[in-house]
Amino acid sequence: MRNIYKLAKLTCLILFVCGFVFVAQSQHVVGNGKISGEFGFNGMYYIPDSLIGAEPVDSKVRANTYLSLMYNNGGFTVGAQYEFYSFPLIDFEKIDYKGQGLTRFYFDYKHKIIQVTAGTFYEQFGNGFTLRSYEERQLGVDNSLLGARIKLTPYQGITIKGVWGIQRENFDFDYKYRQDFVRGIDGEFAFGDIFPVISEKGFTATVGGSFVSKYEKSDYDIYVDLFPGTDRQTEGIILSEKIPANVACWSTRLNFGYEGFRFEAEFAQKVNDPNATNQFIYKKGNALFLSATYSMKGLGVSASFIRSDNMDFRSQRLALAKTPVLAINYIPAINRQYTYQLISNYSYASQPNGQIGAQLQVNYQIPKKTKLGGKYGTDITFNFSRFHDIDRVSVPLADSLGTMSGTEGYKSGFFKFGKKLLYQDVGIEFSHRFDKRWKLILAYNYITYNMDVLQGHGGMLQGHLVSSDLTCKINTKHALRLELQHLYTKEDVGSWLYAMLEYSISPRWFISVGDQWNYGNSVKGQRIHYYNVSAAFVWHTTRIALNFGKTREGILCVGGVCRSVPASYGMGLSVTTSF
Amino acid sequence: MKKIALVIALILSVSLIYAQEGQEKAKQYPKLPAVDIKTLNGSTFNTGDIKNDGKPVIISLWATWCKPCIAELLAIADVYDDWVEETGVKLYAISIDDSKTAARVAPFVNGKGWDYEVLQDPNWDFKRAMNVPDVPYLCILNGNGEIVWQHTSYAPGSEEEVYQELLKLIKK
Lengths: 579, 172
Prior knowledge:
The complex is a heterodimer. Chain A is mainly beta. Chain A has helices at 2-26, 90-94, 191-194, 196-200, 341-344, 396-401, 451-455, and strands at 29-30, 33-46, 61-73, 76-85, 99-111, 114-121, 135-136, 141-142, 145-155, 158-167, 180-190, 203-216, 222-225, 235-238, 246-258, 261-270, 285-296, 299-309, 354-366, 378-390, 393-394, 410-411, 417-433, 438-450, 460-473, 478-488, 496-505, 509-517, 529-539, 542-551, 554-558, 561-565, 568-578. Helix content of chain A is 9%, strand content 54%. Chain A has a 24-stranded antiparallel beta barrel. Chain A has a two-stranded antiparallel sheet with strand order 7-8. A two-stranded antiparallel sheet of chain A has the order 13-14. The longest helix of chain A is centred in the N-terminal third of the chain and has 25 residues, at 2-26. Chain A is globular, with a radius of gyration of 26 Å. The two termini of chain A are 35 Å apart. Chain B is built from five helices and seven strands, in the order αβββαβαβαββα. A seven-stranded mixed beta sheet of chain B has the order 2-1-5-4-3-6-7. Chain B is globular, with a radius of gyration of 18 Å. The N and C termini of chain B lie far apart (49 Å). The relative contact order of chain B is 0.18. The interface between A and B is large, with 111 and 73 residues.
């Protein structure tokens, strides 16, 4: 009964919003200012399916809904966002992204050299090694800060930012009980803008630095498991006076370019920060990112390196969630990101507390109107990436105590690769257009994926993947797209086949049918078809999509940040619009 | 419940303002938000400075990991020279790649041989200011820098609609 009441409320809300959107589509301008916004509804009706592991859920109809509005007039902007996630999709419920409330409200004023924001804001310093508050709706990540920000541009090419705020923790709005906050400062100097003579000669150079500090009251002792992973249940204690209330993290960065060449580097350090993700060790953390790219017309080469050691930095030391809840900084996973279904099921997730690795990518275009390139040219992308755990040697104290907790933890050779391989990907991709009608993308990848670390169980997976994407443009409006993929592996649940056919009538309609088939499962009864049928309608900035089918249990990754997805079966409806 | 009522009331009142305004004014188009983003060289660029001497501008929000975005930009690349010749249009391709893949945007663009103006919005400040939920997203600005047409998603052939909209602008 309560659910029906809540749903009725939800329906009302949606109707109002639709009406609002209808009006708003035709008129955007109020006085001299402008109102704009965004609305999203993502709902699903769940059907239990014991075969795939889709358990019965307490309320079968669930939805994620949000509305954000913004009013802008000259340099002045106010905005708010309401999120209704009281009965969220089950994957959001699993990660505690559940509740409702005004999750964003802000006031922003910009005038010449100064910009001031009060309320909820998102900010990134450099690559995000010291601070990045961002949102990723698909994942249920929103670590915005509530507080104030000031940004100064005293001279062209010089930017100084200062922030203070309390970080959002899902739908927990009891800010008066919060005992933690974040403050930071960042400066950046773009020499090419400050001294035009530099850019006139074709050079660009930017340097920057940031300092971020977290405060969290430390008035409680922490009890730790002295022998984690064993049967011995002995608790140790870290006294409150030994726990740092302030944790600082700083970084310097450099960006240099000349014509097609570009070099980028950032190095960050963090002081002792005993927390739940690092087993309460007192070691300092650090991260290094290097990237060199060269490009000219038809050729692009990029090589990057990353090493991060004990860099999980959160607003609360007891936060342990797998998703970046309360994460202050962001350590990127720099491997190539794929959209092919089967390869993305085994996608690398960044390991802020220990990873060292590199990525190399070459894009080359065989020129148009040559024998090999054909009339339209052929694009070739080669890619290699490999990530290891960092080298770790336990400090003697940790050895004798039987635990890392409360000690320096381990020592690590800076450029030494640890023995444990986390992920490797070697791939090549061809993209070729034959004529006005046919286009083909063909890719091969060989991946090695450490399931123990990245999924929590299962050992090492080695897989060969072949992916193809064939588009046939029937005429200017109608097109067919066929995706075929094959993953060959002996590990985990074995090999998979994937096929998807999409029919589109541009620019409005998309209809697709797809199937992911676990044909190589060693258990015959588990050779399941995960089929999906979907239809979508697009009108300007409004998209309405309906789908029906099964989703396999697995990992969803967006931007190197991953979360687990439970198996599900049912019918879904999603509506997004901006106005 | 109180909060929901509040939101609904807010929406209603805003809709009413809209309805009234609609009667009083001829069709007005919103200006592009002015937000600080980055150039490929890492220097700051304000989106308020996007202009093309009174000629139309196309803005495309994309990412190196977004297949339909790339399909759209590739499709436009094939006809871009003709569009420029006929309408004088300029395309700004604003990448929303974050620090994970941002360094690979420049080589990617050059590898494809695109003639677009490429900018970077690594922490989605522009994407948020534009209220764009997902990429690909494309909009057309008229000669005064006002957003006259918007579209999300990409289906092969939908670049034709973009072209028709550009022709309409030129005729005006």
